[in-house]
Design a protein that fits this description.
This is DNA-binding transcriptional MerR regulator. By secondary structure, the chain is mainly alpha-helical. The protein is built from 14 helices and two strands; from the N terminus they run αααααααααααααββα. It folds into three domains: 93 residues, Orthogonal Bundle (Multidrug-efflux Transporter Regulator, Chain: A, Domain 2); 148 residues, no CATH class; 55 residues, no CATH class. The longest helix has 33 residues.
């Protein structure tokens, strides 16, 4: 008869493991002798070696008893099922290793692999790291908000990266990062970029230029991030607006009607010279329809409201 220490030694496990298997009900606990010690026979050594072998093979302890009691066919089926689970775990662990490797390389874990690949491509093309940083930080909320659209957006980005003219815009902006707002290269960039955007919008539709469809507060946040990281971007956006496009994160075409409407709204909020005063917001000759809440008629100053009829 064997002591627990001898049993553990023969089976190649620790005494603690033997006690653990007792607790789990995998190895029957023998009766104690008159001295109060457990005594094991040769059969316990065989059972313990089987348990150890299954555990080392990755079989969960919860299924070890099932396998020990299974016939040949049941054993084969159970082993195949366990092997399938282990393969899935290995694939998942490999993905974890890849993400950790990207983190070690400086890429953010919050980004999908295709976005990381896109950022690496920008670096390989010589794009300034500060611009890559803006791209990276902008993609984090976009990918988190609409992960199902990342593949679609990346297809479009890869098409753009295949266009030397598009890459040229990135490189020119990178050269202008440390320049002042009056750097002529920003004007050159705005001219070329606006022509390129207009061409793409005319040929493929404005949705192709930008269809991210994100909420205005997030657009504002991402724009601010870009302007803080790449200050010339703010000046570039001003130049683009004069050339028919507005926005940084979300591009939109600026039509003459929209420009006039935006100017009027801004003017009306300040008050209009030539109006009747007393809160009048309608220029002389304007229709009362532009002054919500006013009655029809003509004010004392010739404006289109009735505040001072």
């Amino acid at each position: 008869m064997l002591t627990i220490g001898e049993l553990a030694s023969y089976a190649g496990v620790t005494v603690r493991a033997v006690r653990h298997y007792h607790t789990k009900g995998l190895l029957p606990e023998p009766e104690r002798d008159h001295s109060g010690y457990r005594r094991y026979d040769a059969g316990a050594v065989v059972e313990l070696i089987k348990i150890r072998t299954l555990a080392e093979a990755g079989v969960p302890l919860a299924r070890v008893r099932e396998l020990l009691q299974a016939d040949e066919e049941e054993f084969a089926t159970a082993v195949a099922d366990i092997d399938k689970r282990l393969r899935a775990e290995i694939r998942e662990r490999q993905r974890h290793r890849e993400r950790i490797a990207r983190l070690a390389a400086g890429d953010d874990l919050a980004l999908p692999p295709e976005v990381v690949e896109y950022l690496d491509r920008l670096r390989a093309l010589g794009v300034d790291e500060r611009i890559v940083q803006v791209e990276r930080d902008g993609w984090i909320p976009l990918a988190a908000r609409s992960p199902e659209r990342v593949a679609e957006w990346m297809t479009r980005k890869r098409e753009q990266l295949a266009d030397p003219q598009f890459i040229g815009f990135y490189l020119i902006l990178g050269q202008a990062l440390d320049r002042t707002d009056d750097d002529p290269r920003l004007v050159e960039l705005a001219d070329g970029l606006s022509a390129y955007i207009t061409q793409m919008a005319d040929e493929r539709g404005e949705d192709y230029v930008d269809d991210t469809d994100i909420e205005p507060p997030l657009v504002k946040l991402m724009d601010t991030l870009a302007f803080d990281t790449v200050p010339p971007a703010r000046r570039l956006m001003e130049l683009l607006r004069k050339r028919g496009w507005t926005g940084w994160t979300k591009l939109e075409r600026v039509t003459p009607e929209r420009e006039r409407s935006g100017h009027r709204r801004k003017t009306l909020r300040r008050g209009v010279p030539g109006g009747c005063g007393d809160g009048c917001r309608v220029p002389p000759g304007d229709d009362v329809g532009d002054n919500p809440g006013a009655d029809a008629g003509v004010g004392d100053a010739g404006c289109g409201c009735s505040l001072r009829r």
